[in-house]
């Protein structure tokens, strides 16, 4: 089978390419160049040219064809512009999830098919399996064997058509084993550090990055007392909705340079000292440019027992598992951010919304992020958290 591997210049995709070649496949390595502006990257971290050179060295070492594919126009239109729009609207997007759905397994997949590939492969730590429902074959997305590196959350928006053509060669391996293999076969990326930051952009200072489209704007930081938050929470009729605040609920304790630069649950960057406990963002209002904060990880304004998603913004990896209206299912496990341990709860469909009810309150539930739900090791679906 001819398979195109997305060679990123890192050790994971390098070993993925080697495993496929060892299995007898006709492997082609393609490096995706999706970003050009290095001015927003911290200390020139993860510059694309170094990654492209490393990918080329890996391809040469493995004896496979290699090329660079420039997808920067599509990346800007589908990912970067989406980020700007979401932050401007007061939400917190997850570009890595969208990058997989829109770039790696859409634009890149079609480019691979143009060179005769029957499938694409990446260095993601996840697995694919097949289930049969009423005689119909369905593809399952499973967590990677290495729980410390599992990346199934980033792929929670993939469709059946995309999974059908996807390969994840290192999903059955741990990261240490991947490093060992790379060393054993002499890959030039064997000891290369893992990349950090935004997908294909690198490690950035988010405010600096967002200032390309969103100008700084000074506003007030208002601290909400625990007692005020507890009282408002007790009186709130809908636990799936975030609490809303106004200036009269608290006291001005500082200033910020733009509410759109922050996210719910954020601790760093608030720059207000002298408090017994750390301050966390509990809400941001981009219309009034106000940041509301509270002290401590257990502040009532930071914790939520539920969330909701518009049905139109939810996705089931296996459509046959979709809930019927009014159906409350068996327990699922949930994740609202990468690397978060799975949290127990219940999924409910009611009207135009899909609701998540957590068994234990969760901190930092931010609108715009993706909530993914699991049945054991299988990622079943995901949706955009509504405001």
Explain the overall architecture.
The protein has 387 residues and is an alpha/beta fold. It has helices at residues 11-22, 48-62, 72-88, 95-114, 160-164, 175-184, 206-210, 226-235; strands spanning 2-6, 26-33, 66-70, 119-121, 126-133, 136-143, 166-167, 219-223, 251-256, 279-285, 290-295, 303-310, 314-316, 328-335, 343-350, 353-363, 370-375, 378-384. The protein has 3 domains: 2-123 and 169-209, Rossmann fold; 215-295, Adenine nucleotide alpha hydrolases-like domains (SH3 type barrels, Roll), CATH 2.30.30; 303-384, Translation factors (Elongation Factor Tu (Ef-tu), domain 3, Beta Barrel). It contains 8 helices and 18 strands. A hairpin with a 7-residue loop joins β14 (328-335) and β15. α1 runs parallel beside α2 (48-62) and α1 (11-22) crosses α6. It is globular, with a radius of gyration of 22 Å. It starts with a strand and ends with a strand.
Key features of this structure:
387 residues; alpha/beta; Rossmann fold; SH3 type barrels; Elongation Factor Tu (Ef-tu), domain 3; nine-stranded antiparallel β-sheet; 8 helices; 29% strand; globular
